[in-house]
Amino acid sequence: MRERPAMRERPAHLPLVFSSLGHCYVHLFMAFYFVIVLALEETWALPYHELIELWTLGSLMVGLAALPAGWLGDRWSASGMMVVFFLGLGASGIVCGLVDAPTALFLGLTSIGVFAAIYHPVGIAWLVRNAKFRGKALGINGIFGSIGIAVAALAAGALIDLFGWRAAFIVPGVVSVATGLALIACLRLGLLIEVEVEVKADSAPPSRAAVLRVYAILLLTMLVMGMVFQATQIAIPKVFDLRLRDIAGTGTFGIGLIVALVYTVGGVTQLVGGVLADKYPLKPIYVGGFLFQVPVLAGIAWFGGMPLIVLAAASVLLTTAPLPAENLLLARFTPQRHHSLAYGVKFVLAFGTGPVSIVLVSSVQARTGEFFWLFLALAGFAVVATLAALLLPGEPVRRPAPAVAAE
User: In which domain, by residue range, is 272 found?
Assistant: First the structure.
């Protein structure tokens, strides 16, 4: 899609608005099935571990398709790819709400995975390219990702209880399609364009050795913590279903409400992580998130009741707060013309662990009926990430916030 030349006056916040909405939607669509599956257990009379595995290929595509999506965002059009994302994601959700058999649902969920893969490599690079205060913008954007997970749990639970499981797919699908049409309108009216020129470097270019070192470390930390994020997101609704029935009641709405609160409270703190990333060295922020995750994940393995809710919120906080620092590290050590591709590589790793996470969660639940050993293993993964992140190079000179180049 070819953008029109910039008009003299255009809303500077529109890239942040659409990027944030996209982040909300992608996490909503990647999370609502973990609540919908609780209703399908009864409706289709199939066990949890079989139903959750229907998302296996879809979760794999979220990772695998991120790389070609990022390449297209760099070579063709970031905003054009965002249009494809909104329309394709919404249409896939609507299709999932119309199917009648597990095989058809499997195909629909796979389609959701393909279109969901577009957002992270394209939408985040688009935002970084347009933002004046990158850390703060990434923090705001990150909040919307956590809101998406929260809304997924809350909306899915409410829609299932009121209208049935099909509405939990169809209603978000319609909203996503409508957002895509709004983005098309903004592009046609010239209200939104991409910043094509390179921003000025805010520090000396890093050496080749430093780039290779940072990439090797980030590849490991993103892979390991991607596993932690995916497995936790998959398992938490069922963990609450098993341990919080005295608090949540017997319907899906109660479970969805608690999940929503956990991700809202934990996710809002990502703005703090973004502001800190603008003002302070990135390495301590990045390492700290992993280090404190270790006892929190171990606690989730042990506790129930209110302590479980608090620990789950803390886990979300510690997962999301380092993300602005991680994205800025990638941006700093990658030429701007390759940002979408670099983020594509990141999310191949972060979301490519989805199928392994699904198998891990379903296997532990099928064998033990609980998730104690799962969260102990995830705590071990966080230890590995902490040790790796400690090897990142220091950042002796604090970078000023970069300004967007004049058009």
Answer: 14-194+205-389
